[in-house]
Amino acid sequence: MSDGAPEPVAALRRIAFLLERTRAQTYRVKAFRSAAATVLTLDPEELRARDAAGTLRELSGIGSATESVISESLAGRMPDYLSRLESEAGGPLAEGGEELRAALRGDLHSHSDWSDGGSPIEEIAFTAVEAGHDYLALTDHSPRLTVANGLTAERLTEQLGIVEAINDHLGDEFHLLKGIEVDILDDGALDQSDEMLEMLDVVVASVHSKLRMDADAMTRRMVTAVRHPRSDILGHCTGRLITGGRGTRPPSTFDADAVLDACAEHDVAVEINSRPERSDPPDELVALALDKGCLFSIDSDAHAPGQLDFLDYGCARATALGVPHDRIVNTWPIGRLLEWSAG
C-alpha cells in the first residue's frame, strides 16, 4: 500500500467520523460504520479475493459507495469519497480557541448507543483515544428520560462493568470515566439513587423536561440539584436551541444569580455545551458565572464519535469570553479532576 492511503477499515471509519462531525443524516453514517464492521470480520485475503471478483456487494452492509472506498483503499489509493470529505470537513470546526483546545485533556459529557447515542461504547472510547484525550466521561441518560432510552440502575450497573473492561484493555494512558447525565426532576431531586451515583466518577445534572416552568420553581429546582453532594456539572443550563433540525427553543427562565451562586458555593462546574444547536449557556451567563468565581467544563455532548470534535466550538466561545484555562476542569490532569469530582 502506498504512503498516505488508509486501510479499508480506517478509511470507512474516518468517513463516518467526518460525516458525524458535520451532523450528516444518520443513515449515511451508518452505511460506513456498518461496512467497517463487516470488513473487520473478514480475512484480508478473502477481502482481496472478493474485490478482484467483484463480489464485495454480496456482503452484508456493503453498498456501491462503500465498495468503491474499499476497492480504492486496497489498490493503495486515497478513496475519492474520503479525499473530498477531508477537503470539505477535515479542518477545524471553529476559528479561535486553538490554544485552549490543545490544553483540554478530555471531555466530560458523551453518549453511546446505550441511551440515545449512535455508536457502541468501544467506538466512542477508541475515537477519544485517537483524538488524543486523556479521559472521556461516558454519561448516558438516566431512567426517567425514556425517549432517550435512559438507563435503569440495572442497565447502568451492567454498563459500568463494560467500562471497567475497556479500561483494562486500554491500560493507564486513557481513562473511560464512569458517568451519567442525570435528569433534574421537578423538585430538584436527581433521577438515580444516591447509591448508584456514589459509584460514578462524573455526574452531569441537566434539566430535560418542563423547560417552561415558572421561573421561581425552576430556580428552586436547579439550586436543589446543584446542592446535591454528587452533582459535579450543571449541564446545558438554559435548555435553549438556537439552530438545527429540532428547531429553536427559548431559554428557560430562572434566577441566574441564585443558580450560579449555588454552583460557586458547591464547586459545581457550569457546562459550556459545545453542540452548535445549543451553544449553552448564552454569553451573558458565562460572563456572570465568571464574575461569581464558578468553575467550567467545556463538553462536546457527543452523540456520535465524530461529534467529539464539537469541542472546537466550545473552546472558541470560551476563549472569546475570557474563561481562564485553570477554571476549566477538563484542562486538569486525571488525578486533580477525580479529587474534585469526589469532593
Detailed description of the structure:
This protein is α/β, with parallel strands linked by helices and 343 residues long. It has two domains: 8-89, DNA polymerase, domain 1, CATH 1.10.150; 98-342, Alpha-Beta Barrel (TIM Barrel), CATH 3.20.20. It is 44% helix and 9% strand. It has helices at 8-21, 26-40, 44-53, 64-74, 80-89, 98-103, 121-130, 153-170, 194-197, 215-227, 256-266, 283-291, 311-320, 334-342; strands spanning 106-107, 135-138, 175-183, 202-206, 233-234, 269-273, 296-299. Strands 1-2-3-4-5-6-7 form a seven-stranded parallel β-sheet. Helix 1 packs across helix 4. The longest helix has 18 residues, at 153-170. It starts with 7 loop residues before the first helix and ends with a helix.
**CATH overall fold name of the largest domain:** TIM Barrel
Unreliable segments (pLDDT under 50, ≥5 consecutive)?
none
Number of domains: 2
| Strands, count | 7
Looking at this structure, what is the CATH superfamily of the largest domain?
Metal-dependent hydrolases
What's the N-to-C terminus distance?
52 Å
Strand order of the largest sheet: 1-2-3-4-5-6-7
- The share of residues in extended strands comes to 5-15%
- Level-2 CATH architecture of the largest domain: Alpha-Beta Barrel
CATH class value of the largest domain: Alpha Beta
Give the SSE order as H and E letters: HHHHHHEHEHEHEHEHEHEHH
Helix content: 40-55%
Overall geometry comes to elongated
Q: What's the average pLDDT?
A: 96
